[in-house]
Amino acid sequence: MIRIVSTPRLEHLQSEARTGRECARQTTADANEAFGRHIRELYATTDRAERAEATTSEVGAILKRAVEELVAAQQELLLKDIEIRRLREELSVERLEVRTLTVLMHYGQPHTVYAYREDAYADTAAHGRPADHVWGPRGERSARECEWSCESFIYDAASNGFRRAFMPSPEPVGGAA
Predict the structure, then answer these.
(1) How distant, in Å, are the alpha carbons of 29, 69, 92 from that of 87?
(2) 151 partner at 20 to 30 Å CA-CA among 38, 43, 92, 118?
(3) Can you list the pairs that 42-47 forms with residues at least 24 positions away whose Cβ atoms lie under 8 Å?
(4) Tally of CB atoms within 10 A around 115
(5) What is the mean pLDDT of residues 136-162?
(6) Which residues share a beta bridge with 155?
């Protein structure tokens, strides 16, 4: 079968073909643009996911260090708590009546009070007395004649106060016997 196509029909078909090609080009351009947007969003999403993963790793490392520091601090607090309990028990066992205080005297006048004699001896180095000074009895000299001396005091429950641990022997008054 033979079909005869007229010039107007041919022009109409060519016009429709141009419109179809233009529509196809526009659709291809829109598809390419949509594909480009999709690729950009994919890259942006991938970048955000990688940054989130890196941040998560950093936060995990920071959290791990913080937990380690917390555990160390808890252990230290536990040790300190044990030491405090031990000291409290030691203090509760040590009766006040038996406890001795040491008073550092400067020319017979009280200068500083110490819980332990060794602390008083060590502190005299700050006042010009050598740290390795041998402490001995004053002998017959009075406390006012000694530049630095240490006196021990104990709690006297009867008077609710402290008294000398070592009382000097009483001297006769006015040569009386």
Answers:
(1) 85, 26, 8
(2) 92
(3) none
(4) 11
(5) 70
(6) 162
Question: What is the value of pTM for the model shown?
Answer: 0.37
DSSP run (H or E) holding 16: helix 7-93
Query: Could you tell me the two tokens for 176?
Result: 């009386």
Which of the 8 DSSP states describes residue 166?
Answer: S
With cut-offs at 50, 70 and 90, classify the pLDDT of residue 72. very high
Q: For residue 50, count other CB atoms closer than 10 A to its CB.
A: 10
Candidates 107, 96, 97, 100; CA nearest to 149 is 107
Three state DSSP letters for 112-147: EEECCHHHHHHHHHHHCCCCCCCCCCCCCCCHHHCC
Q: Any alpha helices (H) in 94-106, and if so which ranges?
A: none
Query: What would the two tokens of residue 85 be?
Result: 């309990």
